[in-house]
Specification:
single chain; 14-stranded antiparallel beta barrel
Length: 324
């Protein structure tokens, strides 16, 4: 009983498991809902999750492992995700190590929550009793480029642990991804993740998308995602980049995206921010990225995104990356 209550409460906090928002009938039937929060890449989230065709570097492990093959230098990436309803994911670390055309990578993510009430079968709180949620995952990946760096393939082996106040379980799942870049203008991406395990333990997801560059400064992307416990979702993103040779000190990217989520409720007038409805409209996402290849002799980047989630509040994330 305790495990079911905590799982339901956590799913509600993640905005992933309540029928109050008119969600898909299959919502909540898949495990490891915390994996859907958008780990590892502020850039991906600010592009409306339209990232399968543009994923690259260490942060690609959580989205499309084929993007790992685009890594040119060793990379270390750290992300902090501040989610809704007090849910935070303060630990995401990823590393990419190129060896010629083959690149190896690894990542780890962890989150914990506490303060959930424990109730008996009649719903009566049990005093002085609470539980702690501990969820996390770790991934080992390998990717390689083919066909004169036009085709990129990647695969991962991932362990996912979920403990929602009861018996914990660990599932080992696999990821596979492809990125095709026939020229410098267009790219296609496909990834299937979390296969090889019961969907009740870890919800499977399939992603496919395309990205197009316009005049080298603007990149447009589109993705279609399908989780095993929800309907298909579409994401759209636009990224405008001022090149480093123009600014001399770094490269700045401005991003905006849209992801067609379920109805997350309207913000009450008293809770609306100054920039409402621009900031506050569910589905929209905004971000900025700063990259310098000259700072301290290393490549350093900083990305930030803001994702309004209607009445549930705002989610934001930072990603810092070091190339050496």
């Amino acid at each position: 009983m305790r495990t079911r209550l905590v799982t339901a409460t956590l799913a509600a906090a993640l905005g992933l498991g309540t029928r109050a928002w008119a969600m898909d009938p299959a919502a909540g039937t898949g495990g490891a809902s915390f994996m859907k929060m958008g780990w590892g890449s502020a850039r991906a989230m600010s592009l409306g999750r339209a990232y399968s065709a543009v994923a690259e570097g260490a942060e690609s492990l959580a989205w499309n492992p084929a993007g790992l093959a685009l890594t040119q230098q060793r990379e270390v990436s750290y992300s902090y995700l501040r989610y809704i309803q007090g849910v935070n994911a303060p630990l995401y670390l990823a590393y990419a190590h190129p060896l010629g055309r083959t690149v190896f990578g690894a990542n780890v993510g962890y989150m914990s929550l506490e303060g959930f009430d424990v109730r008996d079968a009649n719903g009566i709180p049990l005093d002085n009793t609470n539980v702690q949620v501990r969820d996390g995952f770790g991934t080992l990946s390998m990717a390689r480029s083919f066909w004169y760096e036009k085709l990129f393939l990647g695969a991962s082996l991932k362990a996912v642990t979920e403990d929602n106040g009861g018996p914990s379980h660990t599932s080992v799942v696999g990821d596979f991804g492809v990125i095709l870049k026939p020229n410098q203008t267009i790219s296609f991406g496909f990834a299937t993740q979390n296969f090889g395990s019961n969907g009740r333990q870890v919800a499977r997801v399939t992603r496919g998308g395309v990205a197009v560059k316009v005049l080298e400064l603007l990149q447009l992307s589109m993705d279609l995602d399908k989780y095993s416990d929800s309907a298909a979702r579409a994401g759209f993103g636009a990224e405008f980049t001022l090149p480093e040779d123009l600014l001399e000190v770094g490269q700045i990217s401005l991003r905006v995206g849209y992801y067609n989520t379920d109805n997350q409720g309207k913000i009450l007038e008293k809770d609306r921010e100054a920039l409402y409805p621009l900031v506050g409209t569910q589905g929209l996402a905004f971000g900025i990225g700063i990259l310098s290849t000259q700072a301290f002799g290393y490549g350093i980047s900083f990305d930030y995104c803001l994702v309004p989630m209607g009445a549930l509040g705002n989610s934001d994330q930072i990603t810092m990356k070091l190339k050496f």
